[in-house]
């Protein structure tokens, strides 16, 4: 008898979700397990509000954008009626991906396989040679799948597959106020996400971005080379040098807004004259000289203070990160694989030189600082593959009075090194997984 026939695959039972996060520690399987990942895509990316696009990415009627949402491709369209639609990018005939371009302008989408055609609000408007389907074939039964809810806050378009989610404003809570402050920094409140994205592939779990989002503990260590290089070349007081101390003695604070949303507010630690304290960027002198040639000194000073990042790290669970001048999203691919997409932003109401400087600034931190963070996330993922040690410690600040103190809106304000925001998003994560 052939012994190999005795070999059987014993399915590994999925982990008990209720024990993966215990308030002060989180289990490694939250970052490495395929069944947890599958559930996250269904219950989190398919179960709550997710960020889809900034309105400036599809300003005209019939503009569209394709975005990945928890393993699904979604076409976000701007209908002629002014409404946004979030359509599943999947032909209703035999499942072919319908739209293969990232962005464009189209009234209709026609499937490349057999020519079924859909209007950009999702209606099936054309089935070639329908005769053989018979007289009871109803084209309208083959409209594209669509997200159940779509809404906009401060120019940010969100959607949800879950028809029973809270209204968006309620879901965002106090985070909506800081999103408004971020938008209103722009003259006239007008912001543009520039068309071309910076795309990053990370060998790490998507939640590692969340563990880092409002973490003021790491900056002095992970970004040490950036801080010391800047101090050496340009003198103290520039760029991230405000992190170069005990993080909890700094004026900046973190907020846990509830429902997973976080805010690291660096503004209290930033000098009033932001431009004077900004690290030099390429082309600075020529662009500033051009501004002075054409505009008053007073206007130039006002605009240059808009160039450095907003000093606001606003993270809206589960996939939106507003960091300085950037709008970024995380796209989970697999337990140990994540893509990030980042858009630099400009202000339509300022001279082009100011926006050129903003773009140079948007490149500055992401090129010199973000690789440090990503290196830590990838090292974490490799560390978490070691099965013998099971837990990550996330208890910093837990149980101290400020950790428990919340204002009338349920917002905790805590020192920036505390892991309160991290415990906050894990609480929401666990609640959504158990839906
Ligand atoms: S699969 Fe789309 S038309 Fe056939
Ligand atoms: Fe960092």
SSE arrangement:
Blueprint: E1 25-27, H1 29-32, H2 34-44, E2 50-54, E3 63-69, E4 72-78, E5 84-88, E6 103-105, E7 108-110, E8 117-119, E9 124-126, E10 149-153, E11 156-160, H3 168-172, H4 175-184, E12 192-193, E13 198-202, H5 207-213, H6 219-222, H7 224-234, E14 253-258, E15 261-265, H8 284-294, H9 297-304, E16 312-316, E17 320-323, E18 326-334, E19 337-346, H10 352-368, H11 370-384, E20 391-393, H12 401-404, E21 412-414, H13 420-433
Antiparallel strand pairs: 1-20, 2-11, 3-4, 3-6, 4-5, 7-8, 8-9, 10-11, 12-19, 13-19, 14-15, 14-21, 15-16, 16-17, 17-18, 18-19
Helix pairs in contact: 8-10
Fe (ii) ion (FE2) binds next to helix 6.
Provide an overview of this structure.
This protein has 435 residues and is of the alpha+beta class. It has 2 domains: 50-153, Rieske [2Fe-2S] iron-sulphur domain (Rieske Iron-sulfur Protein); 194-433, Naphthalene 1,2-dioxygenase Alpha Subunit, Chain A, domain 1. It has helices spanning 29-32, 34-44, 168-172, 175-184, 207-213, 219-222, 224-234, 284-294, 297-304, 352-368, 370-384, 401-404, 420-433; strands spanning 25-27, 50-54, 63-69, 72-78, 84-88, 103-105, 108-110, 117-119, 124-126, 149-153, 156-160, 192-193, 198-202, 253-258, 261-265, 312-316, 320-323, 326-334, 337-346, 391-393, 412-414. The strands form 5 sheets. Strands 12, 13, 14, 15, 16, 17, 18, 19 and 21 form a 9-stranded antiparallel sheet that branches. A 4-stranded antiparallel sheet has the order 5-4-3-6, with no helix packed on it. Strands 2-11-10 form a 3-stranded antiparallel sheet. It is globular. The N and C termini lie far apart (48 Å).
């Amino acid at each position: 008898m052939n012994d190999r026939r005795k070999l059987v695959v014993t399915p590994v039972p999925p982990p008990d979700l209720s024990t993966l996060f215990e308030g002060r520690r989180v289990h490694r399987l939250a970052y490495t397990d395929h069944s947890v990942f599958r559930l996250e895509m269904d219950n989190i990316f398919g179960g709550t509000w997710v960020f889809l696009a900034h309105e400036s990415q599809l300003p005209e009627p019939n503009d569209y954008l394709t975005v990945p949402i928890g393993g699904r491709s979604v076409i976000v369209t701007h209908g002629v009626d002014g409404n946004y639609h979030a359509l599943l990018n999947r032909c209703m005939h035999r499942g072919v991906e319908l739209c293969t371009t990232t962005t464009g302008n189209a009234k209709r989408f026609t499937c490349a396989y057999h020519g079924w055609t859909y209007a950009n609000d999702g209606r099936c408007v054309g089935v070639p040679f329908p005769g053989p389907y018979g007289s009871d074939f109803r084209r309208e039964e083959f409209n594209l799948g669509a997200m159940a809810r779509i809404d906009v806050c401060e120019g940010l378009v969100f959607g949800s597959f879950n028809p029973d989610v809270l209204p968006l404003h309620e879901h965002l809570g106090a985070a909506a106020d800081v999103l408004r402050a971020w938008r209103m920094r722009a003259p006239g409140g007008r912001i543009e996400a520039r068309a071309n994205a910076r795309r990053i592939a990370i060998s790490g779990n998507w939640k590692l971005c969340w563990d880092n989002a409002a973490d003021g503990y790491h900056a002095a260590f992970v970004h040490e080379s950036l801080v010391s290089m800047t101090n050496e070349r340009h003198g103290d007081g520039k760029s991230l040098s405000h992190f170069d101390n005990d993080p909890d003695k700094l004026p900046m604070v973190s907020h846990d807004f509830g429902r997973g949303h976080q805010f690291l507010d660096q503004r209290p630690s930033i000098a009033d004259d932001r431009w004077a304290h900004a690290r030099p960027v390429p082309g600075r002198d020529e662009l500033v000289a051009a501004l002075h040639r054409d505009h008053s000194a007073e206007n130039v000073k006002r605009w240059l203070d808009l160039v450095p990042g907003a000093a606001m790290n606003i993270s809206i669970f589960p996939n939106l990160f507003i960091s300085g001048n950037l709008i970024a999203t995380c796209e989970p691919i697999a337990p140990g694989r994540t893509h990030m997409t980042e858009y630099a932003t400009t202000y339509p109401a300022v001279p082009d030189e100011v926006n050129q400087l903003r773009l140079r600034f948007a490149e500055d931190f992401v090129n010199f600082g973000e690789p440090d963070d990503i290196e830590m996330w990838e090292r974490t993922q490799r560390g978490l593959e070691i099965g013998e040690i099971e837990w990550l410690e996330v208890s910093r600040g837990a149980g101290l009075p400020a950790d428990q103190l919340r204002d009338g809106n349920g917002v905790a304000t805590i020192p920036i090194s505390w892991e309160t925001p991290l415990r906050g998003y894990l609480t929401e994560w666990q609640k959504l997984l158990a839906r």
